Structures
1.
Amino acid sequence: MAVNSPLPVAADLKPVAGIELGYAEAGIKKPGRKDVLVMKLADTATVAGVFTKNRFCAAPVQISKANLAAGAKIRALVVNTGNANAGTGDEGLARARQTCEALAQELGCAPEQILPFSTGVILEPLPVQKIVAALPAAIQNLKADNWFNAAEAIMTTDTQPKAASRTVSIGGHSVTMTGISKGAGMIKPNMATMLGYLAFDAKVAQPVLDELVRHAADHSFNSITIDGDTSTNDSFILMATGAGTLEITSLEQPEYAALRDAVTELSRTLAQMIIRDGEGATKFMTITVEEGKDVEECRKIAYSIAHSPLVKTAFFASDPNLGRILAAIGYAGVDDLDVTKLNLYLDDVWVAKNGGRNPDYKEEDGQRVMKQSEITIRVKLARGAATATVWTCDLSHDYVSINADYRS
Amino acid sequence: MAVNSPLPVAADLKPVAGIELGYAEAGIKKPGRKDVLVMKLADTATVAGVFTKNRFCAAPVQISKANLAAGAKIRALVVNTGNANAGTGDEGLARARQTCEALAQELGCAPEQILPFSTGVILEPLPVQKIVAALPAAIQNLKADNWFNAAEAIMTTDTQPKAASRTVSIGGHSVTMTGISKGAGMIKPNMATMLGYLAFDAKVAQPVLDELVRHAADHSFNSITIDGDTSTNDSFILMATGAGTLEITSLEQPEYAALRDAVTELSRTLAQMIIRDGEGATKFMTITVEEGKDVEECRKIAYSIAHSPLVKTAFFASDPNLGRILAAIGYAGVDDLDVTKLNLYLDDVWVAKNGGRNPDYKEEDGQRVMKQSEITIRVKLARGAATATVWTCDLSHDYVSINADYRS
């Protein structure tokens, strides 16, 4: 039950020169579904990533971070679903390394040139033999136009694959970019979400790509939430394959801003796809907090609204019980907030004026907006010029059903 | 569907000398239910309270805080359900004052000697005329043994009244204490919950009572959560009627500790009754975090577990998907937490050892505990000697149903 989520069509997903994708059915949790993905990069590629800040960060996340930090030239990424390899201690690290070693041997590179990723249930041993056994099949079907299959291969409780492509012209160079993402629950990324991969065919110097991935993540995956649960496995990876004609060597280069904006827009689309397919989601909500002293307090208030179970259930019910939004603003932890200056809008409807009910507000106007499947909540704080936007979904019976049944 | 919640019996609730209670049916939201409560105190009484820290604190909370802060000698409390009088601006303050004025006139005291309270829907005008019209009926049935009716009169989505009594002997003096509480959703008190009232018949000096109410609240109402939504109306009030023989004039007096412990125990019982009757609750969960550096970090981790929708739905399903607890610990915001030293227990079952799955842990042991209706989650941080405990409940379909239907 995705909210106005356009299903990607295989034919609309553009191959990106310099990257090939292959999948396999390893039977990690269930037989007969794609659960292993290999992405192989050209020699010219640079790679940068941001990862979960969860202290229980998964074994593969620890290894991916270390390999990127060591400056290894990344040749391939490997992803498995069905098991998160988190909360698995030293044995988990050993099994993630074993996956990298097996793939490195197949591809003729060093294990440090592989980035491993896992998603699925936490606190259970990774069935590494199944993954290793499936690698040759994945390598055998490596293809440039496998993005749709790749999006399917990283799904867990997702109801649909998430992928999108863009072609942009930057400084006279055509740049093609394609990305995939997954995730429908345990979504409140704190660096990035589990999982997002975006490749494009420009050549980008490592320091530039490191900055770009942070910018794109902050304005996309780091601004979404479904249930406030920051995963142990969140990862967002940018891959500049270097196979195209655009080359960017510094942040000052005029083309950088255009590339940054295009990558950020595509990242945002991928991140919003996760919310639209949020577990049990029936509403897509944009929460914008304006006129704050700084971005941090705007984000605090936006997340407080986005995480309130009472706000989320009211939206599920299409019930304009909007006092719940005020309550969530009030406990957001902005201690010197003067609520008597605060204004609240639901799309075009002015609900609360100077901290109280707008005398002109009519219940039927609130009701009209609440019935929509896409709704913007806008809060004006009258404290400054900062703004932040967060995207989220409602809390429905199906969220409870999905998460009460996840392992069965 | 309360979790092992002993229904209070009217006959077990002891009158407290120096306080009388009366109720009325004002028809605030629906006809034919008790929705107004008046509590009248003896001249000898002292009163202290703690209130919500929500910036959108309700109009009656603002007035009650002001009257207590001004040192007014409190003669009566008045509570209405069906409307929170929050998010109502200046007009809300005027209507709360109008209620106080009407009751003061009936009782022959000043409006500043009244503490008003409201609970119910936010952002809607208080039907003050209905409340004022109902006051004479409430005054007419003022009685010392009306505690059961009082507990019923403050219910909203509660499925049962919450009340308890104790008689303790302190320094040769018999002290009788009775308390009532309400609340089932929008429960993550940050000072106290909406609503708790506890009276006892000792005579207690104001500075002592001010300290006592903070201590009791911190160890009871400030350690519970249902949905993380801090209400606009939380209030917890201690009333020392002064009608008994025990008199406490300073914190150093030897009897103070005994009184503090008795009041705190009764407060905790009342607070836990709220969790046991949490909206849709099927499980009562005690979350204890031990071996922390300080209480604050223990509380952070305990609340992170208690608020995780994924943890709460797993408990609803009796599914030992306990990696979700590790994830919630990991994102609690304790940045220097060394997860490789962490241990996790579910009742007597050792689940995670040194941050990974305990090799001796068996799924069937976890399953056995998860099937219980009362479960203790114990986390050991191996960082210090601090401890904190938080009480919460699971997240079920009924929570969604209740809050999607609340206003209809």
Note: Chain B has two domains: 10-276, 284-405.
2.
Amino acid sequence: MGHEQHQELIRALHECMTACNHCYDACLQEEDIKMMTNCIRLDRECADICSYLEQAICRGTPFSAALTSVCAEICEACGNECKKHAHDHCQRCADACFACADACKSA
Amino acid sequence: MGHEQHQELIRALHECMTACNHCYDACLQEEDIKMMTNCIRLDRECADICSYLEQAICRGTPFSAALTSVCAEICEACGNECKKHAHDHCQRCADACFACADACKSA
Amino acid sequence: MGHEQHQELIRALHECMTACNHCYDACLQEEDIKMMTNCIRLDRECADICSYLEQAICRGTPFSAALTSVCAEICEACGNECKKHAHDHCQRCADACFACADACKSA
Amino acid sequence: MGHEQHQELIRALHECMTACNHCYDACLQEEDIKMMTNCIRLDRECADICSYLEQAICRGTPFSAALTSVCAEICEACGNECKKHAHDHCQRCADACFACADACKSA
């Protein structure tokens, strides 16, 4: 991974982690929370793996190939779920998830 | 994953996390620390992914297949490194790593 | 912290982390999820700090006093919330939280 | 915590986590690693609490007062250790740690 790809990946992971935690927090306050349970679950899964990978990349993990691959899978699943919901926080989260999945796949 | 496999996986992850953190702590106190740098690195990688996966399994993550696969890879790498060193903490850590890799692959 | 207190603390943290993640997962499947939102939030807070502290204690953190104090606070808050709900998973989680708070305070 | 303080805290935590992981990775490659063992330990402690707190703040944790307080303590300890070493990565890490401790105390 070149220095620029590394920086871009860190940035994408950080934005995705932020967006997922914000969406998680907002979903728990929605009136239609019953419809948001998968979104709440996937937001946490996605925030946790992005946060994990961010640290791993920063410490020069030798396992970046396997970890970016699983992170891309989780980001896509979370993005697909968020995309279904009209709430602004869900739509913004979906965008961050898809951007992060792309950054993981290019890393 | 059946209930028994689930319990066995949680147990193996917990023991591996414990052994890796103990080995990390002990390596940092060894006289021959220069020879232990890969062990220190891999102990942290392995402790972190085991701790991560333990929580993910406990909350019913939908990504257990991908996560157990990457965890098995990291456990094996850590076990192979620890196996090279005669220190008791390294040998015990290697055993915990290989047992955890097996539990991940059977999950 | 003596060796027995150390082992007891690790055990209590592990059981609390497990119970909180199970309660989190179960709350997200409850019919009355609207009433469970604080429980979902606190289960995650508590699972995350217990998992964090477990690793920190295992690696001989020099910050155990400050970390066990904040963990006890979070465990008590989660236990108090869970105690309000009749669901079995909430009652069991409350017990694990209070036991863990006690272990943190005795450490 | 106002919106600007929140943004500033997230930024400081992220930069401190990045600097600590970079310093950890670089210390493990130093010739004088024997002198760097406390730095390696504290870099990990500090990276882990900053990463933890970043997520907690982003999801609106109700425990921000207790968590920022313990994070400030750990950042200061890590900054004080790093400050002793002339390596560029240690000096840059010390700066990030002290800035993060300040952000935690103002939050």
Note: The mean pLDDT of chain C is 96.
